[in-house]
Design goal:
Layout lengths: L1 H18 L2 H20 L11 H10 L17 H11 L62 H10 L8 H9 L2 H10 L6 H13 L7 H6 L8 H13 L15 E3 L6 H5 L10 H4 L7 E3 L21 H13 L5 H11 L5 E2 L2 E2 L2 H10 L2
Antiparallel strand pairs: 1-2, 3-4
Helix pairs in contact: 1-2, 4-8, 5-8, 10-14, 13-14
The structure holds heme C (HEC) (2 copies).
Length: about 375
């Protein structure tokens, strides 16, 4: 590498010698010589295999802009009045038919933006078909829901409103209820010229959801140049996450959320688990195309450390188990417990903060209190 650059600079200076006037020629020649001298002061390793750890780290640091995972982008241009109104509506149980359920019944914002059940109980205590994903960072996903049947956050809200197991209602009923409340009449009136309407309710909630970006994780601080924000073990976990090939599906700033992929690229995940359900068909339920059977929107792993249990079916209890199943069914690999624990250590560096507080705090404390 050093030799290549050396030759290039030498050629460049010879070219200059041949084409420039004497004064310029000398300046160009001298500055090239200086550059070469500087280069020789920086030892460059021949290959990455025999690179000492410190050198490998500095190379990693110098190229962080090109990493497959990037820091979360801070939300921009959000109308803060809409964010506040949307937050209120997120907690508003009058949106539901029985006035007893809100978005926050299933998406706990002071914790992980989801809940801890394999299948949340919906209206009348009936289990929902799939595991509840987090609402944090969901604005960054290219489609919403496990099978991607909602193209964006606004559409996703329509599914909650009309689902028998969730709000079980219709927009005109909701609009009618909110119009009876003077506070809502005023706050909508200040922001939206046409006041309380279904699109405006969707817009306010979705704007609030777009503000739910979990900035300032330890991993993002590392990506932004703080080499010590994550430990050597966590760095190795990240390296393994890349070399095993997890990044092929889980990448970008949300570490996933931007592809549809089959669960069970290698081997039949469903045969092994048993009890097939309609929801197991994934994307097929939306498109009806045979090739979309068992395809799911690859989930974001940003908060994976906090959102057990896992997978669309909520059948995987721990992060360790999820990593093992992924290696087996998505990559056709067996993976050692040691490598699993390092990947898990890396995944634990990914959650960031909400309202200035590290996410998951309450849950961790509750879990410790519950421990026998
Ligand atoms: C009864 C529990 C429940 C309620 C109430 C609920 N959700 Fe959900 N939410 C879920 C479940 C379960 C899913 C996954 C459904 C699926 O993929 O088919 C989900 C998925 C989502 C997603 C998609 C996330 C992703 O990564 O694809 C968003 C966004 C979301 N909910 C926001 C909301 C909002 C906003 C409300 C209130 C208007 C709400 N939820 C009310 C349980 C609930
Ligand atoms: C071929 C694409 C692909 C590869 C490669 C892949 N995954 Fe996944 N991953 C998925 C899909 C799809 C799901 C959702 C499966 C489901 O729930 O139905 C998923 C789910 C997960 C989950 C559960 C997330 C949640 O919230 O439920 C974790 C954790 C995970 N993957 C980690 C990994 C790790 C670690 C690797 C590398 C060892 C990896 N994945 C490799 C596609 C992939």
């Amino acid at each position: 590498m050093a030799a290549l650059i050396f030759t290039y600079l030498l050629n460049k200076s010879f070219y200059k010698i041949g084409n420039m006037c004497p004064l310029k020629m000398r300046q160009g020649y001298i500055s090239s010589l200086l550059q070469v001298a500087l280069l020789l002061l920086i030892p460059l390793p021949a290959t990455t295999d025999d690179m000492p750890l410190a050198a490998a780290e500095s190379l990693l640091l110098s190229d962080l802009r090109y990493e497959p995972i990037q820091p979360l982008p801070p939300p921009t241009d959000l109308d803060q009045r809409k964010v506040r109104l949307g937050e209120q509506l997120f907690h508003e149980s009058r949106l539901s038919h029985d006035n007893n359920m809100s978005c926050s019944s299933c998406h706990f914002l002071d914790n992980n933006g989801a809940d801890y059940l394999p299948h949340t109980l919906g209206r009348d205590g009936i289990k929902l078909d799939v595991n509840t994903p987090t609402v944090f960072n969901s604005s960054l996903n290219h489609y919403q829901l496990w099978d991607g049947r909602a193209r964006n956050l606004e559409e996703q809200i329509d599914f909650v409103v009309t689902s028998d197991k969730e709000y079980a209602t219709r927009w005109p009923v909701i609009v009618g209820k909110l119009k009876q409340d003077e506070k809502y009449r005023n706050s909508f009136g200040l922001i939206y010229p046409d006041g309380i309407t279904a699109p405006n309710i969707r817009n306010a909630i979705a704007t609030f959801e777009r503000s739910l970006i979990t900035l300032n994780s330890r991993f993002d601080r590392f990506l932004l140049g703080n080499a010590n924000a994550i430990s050597p073990e966590e760095k190795r976990g990240y390296q393994l996450f890349k070399t095993y090939g997890c990044v092929a599906c889980h990448q970008g700033s949300n570490v996933g959320g931007n592809l549809f992929m089959k669960l069970g690229v290698f081997g039949d995940y469903f045969a092994k688990r048993g009890n097939p359900t309609q929801a197991d068909l994934g994307r097929f339920n939306v498109t009806g195309k045979p090739r979309d059977r068992h395809l799911f929107r690859v989930p974001s792993l940003r908060l994976a450390a906090l959102t057990a249990p896992y997978f669309h079916d909520g059948s995987i209890k721990t992060l360790e188990e999820a990593v093992k199943v992924m290696a087996k069914h998505q990559l056709g690999r067996t993976i050692s417990d040691h490598d699993i624990s390092q990947i898990v250590a890396f995944l634990k560096t990914l959650p960031g903060e909400y309202k200035g507080q590290p996410l998951g705090g309450v849950h961790q404390a509750a879990k410790e209190a519950d421990a026998p």
